[in-house]
Amino acid sequence: MDGLELLKKNWKSQEATLPQVSYDEIYKMIWKRSSSIVKWIFIISICEFLFGVILNVGLADEEYWNSLEQLQIKEITIWAYGINYLITIYFMFRFYMNYRQINSTSSAKRLMKDIIKTRKTVKSYILYVLISLAVVTLSLFYLIAYHHIENTQVADSSAYVFDALDWLKFTGITIIGLGIFLGVIWFFYQLLYGILLKRLKKNYTQLENLDCD
Amino acid sequence: MIVEKELEHQFVSKLERHQNIAHKICRLYTHDRESHNDLFQEITIQLWKAYPKFRGEAKFSTWMYRVALNTAITLYRKKKRGIRTQDFDTVHFKIKAEEYDDETEQQLGLMYNAIKELNDIEKALVFLYLEDKNYKEISETLGISEVNARVKMNRIKTKLKSVLNP
Lengths: 213, 166
Fold this sequence. Notes:
The structure holds two protein chains of two kinds. By secondary structure, chain A is an all-alpha fold. Chain A is built from seven helices and no strands.
């Protein structure tokens, strides 16, 4: 007999040795989407980090450093960069660990816990970015203004004296400006991570429902 | 939410019933247990993604052949075919001859290994052939014309003939 026909005749015999996956295991596979969502969170965080580094390095030419030097904030800027990188790398590490954990989770309860943890990590990361931006912006404003006043000789200094109302206006405008700036950043992060977080949440609800059955 | 849960239940039960199709494809396209499981999971995910569009136009199994094979083909096309086939022995034990006969089983093993060496599309074609699909079904599942399916299959048959009679 032809080899192929021989195989065809006996083809069904292999079914006895095929592995069998249970209903629950298949169910779990369709919620394993979580693992790929968390992978994306990790990948996006890397891209974001690299983008930030490229932007920093690309924008920071000699002129930039000179102007920082003049304003006497070069050193503090370098420190700020360093600390920021360290913290960002720490978050990337956490994202990676979350991904690994979710990938190897086999129980629904554990997966639910991991999902909560991941959502928390992402949320605290976004919070960190917003707070650090606010702190850095405010302190830069303050330092620039402070050193600028110190360095500038004005003929008639009385014209530049700020009264209480002027300070109030200045502070008000700064806060509103900062608020808008942070709002935009927040919106950007909502786009970046918010969709993924929503999906994770949906996945979580599904698991919860499954658990109730 | 309830609708979606019902859909999930429907899908999972159907897949559970027809999972042999996916396992046979995994066995043909992968070389170890781990990648077998990976491919099975990928097929499950792809099926689940496509399920809302399924709507019961065709039989679930027919639809499953198409999606599962496409997943295997796309996934394994990217990989270089440098991976060696598994040991002869492991295949040897999986496909048993109806009447026990050492020589026949050896031939079955050789044949199976030869099929594993074919390219992705050829493998899919032979698989459907072995699953006793007619050329119309084969052509519909793989999205090629019936004539093309016949021509290709004949070529594969010739290729495989030389395996047992070198």
